[in-house]
Amino acid sequence: MRWIWIDKFLVFKSGEFARAIKNLTLAEEHLHDHFPGYPVMPASLIIEGLAQTGGILVGEAGGFTEKVVLAKIPRAEFFGVACAGDQLVYEVTLKDLRSEGAVVEAKAFLDGELLADAEIVFAHLDNSRANQIFGPKNFVFTQQLLGVLDLAKARQRSRETESSGESDPESNGSPHQPASST
Amino acid sequence: MPTNDEIYGKVQATLVDALGVDEDEVTREATLQGDLGAESIDFLDIVFRLERNFGIKIPRGELFPDNLMADPEWVADGKLTAKGLSELKSRLPFADLSRFEADPDVERIGDLYTVDMLVRYVERKLSA
After folding, report:
1. Rounded Cα gap, residues A124 and A156, in angstroms
2. Which domains does chain A have, with CATH numbers?
3. Which stretches within chain B are classed as H helix?
4. For chain B, which residues make up each domain, given as ranges?
5. Strands lying side by side in the sheet with A101-110
6. How confident is the model at residue A129 (pLDDT cuts 50, 70, 90)?
């Protein structure tokens, strides 16, 4: 299993806001156990998806130089359940960002209705200590996870190219180096 | 400038939100860690909330300093030395050290962080 709990970014405003989606499918093993005959997305994994959306928003704001970890969830409320076949929309707004960490407001929507509302605090790991323990590799922002953002930026650029009527012979469908995140 | 009681009321609400405690637990004398169960990561949350709720800026390390025990000259046999105490006073001018000074055990530094200390800290920030 890949630990990626968002499928795609719909909107990414650097340092401000991100909207991502998560499609739920019976191909996901956990839905067969949670619960047998009643496949409901676990609330904890909705939180994880919100945290991944928020974590990338926070990390990108700092140029991915910090190791951003989920530190605390001061508040989380759930108002319903999401089942196999549903599409969740995650909206995360950056409320505060400082050298020690960040706080975001995170909401999940199902069919336009609020399903979950949470506040998530992220901490920036002390780089020198984290390097001693984990080495210099950024284990938080793996290329797999960042691939979701890269893909969104590639699509955005592709749309912009199409709308401006230009062709980009060098693109060949591969992700581009992101320009400014909008 | 809000009164001391008004600041206390807002600090109380801040800690209720940050720590999930009941309002009546947040007395002025309550210690953040011992009585209200705050952990180190809660300090970051408290800093964010105090900044938002009072419209103040809290520079890193001003309210919750790092490396208070860093210098070996500041601690001897598990207690702060005179030099360590003077360092603590200069770093936490809003803390009430009167009782701590009688037994400056480093284990008791956490007890300096009371609700009332946060009130005094915010009061100083707002009047600056």
Report:
1. 29
2. 8-162 (3.10.129.10)
3. 4-19, 40-54, 82-91, 115-127
4. 1-61+113-128, 65-112
5. A8-13, A17-23, A87-98, A101-110, A113-124, A68-78
6. low
Residues in B closer than 8 angstroms to A123, CB to CB, are: 41, 44
Residue A35 preceded by cis peptide, ω within 30: yes
Tally Cβ neighbours within 10 Å of residue A122. Answer: 25
Q: Which residues of A touch B45 (CB under 8 A)?
A: 71-72, 74, 103, 121
pLDDT above 90: percentage of residues in chain B: 65
**B70 contacts on A by Cβ (under 8 Å):** none
Structure tokens at B64: 């919750």
A121 to chain B: nearest residue by CA? B45
**Residue A70 contacts B where some CB pair is shorter than 8 Å:** no
Cβ separation of A121 and B45 shorter than 8 Å? Answer: yes
Q: What is the ipTM of this complex?
A: 0.84
Partner A, chain B 87-116, Cβ-Cβ below 8 Å: none
Q: Domain B1-61+113-128 carries which CATH code?
A: 1.10.1200.10
Instruction: Summarize pLDDT for B33-86 with one digit per residue, the tens.
Output: 999 999 988 999 999 999 999 999 999 989 988 777 777 888 888 898 999 899
Q: What is the pLDDT of residues B79-89, one digit of tens each?
A: 989 998 998 99
Instruction: Among B41, B47, B52, select the one facing A72 at the smallest CB separation.
Output: B41
Residue B17 in contact with partner chain A when CB distance is under 8 A? yes
Q: Is B61 on the interface with A (CB under 8 A)?
A: no
What is the per-residue pLDDT for A28?
94
User: Cβ contact (<8 Å) for B45 and A74?
Assistant: yes
* Overall residue count recorded for chain A in this entry: 182
pTM: 0.84
HSE-up of residue A155 (Cα within 13 Å, Cβ side):
11
**What is the reported pLDDT for A180?**
46
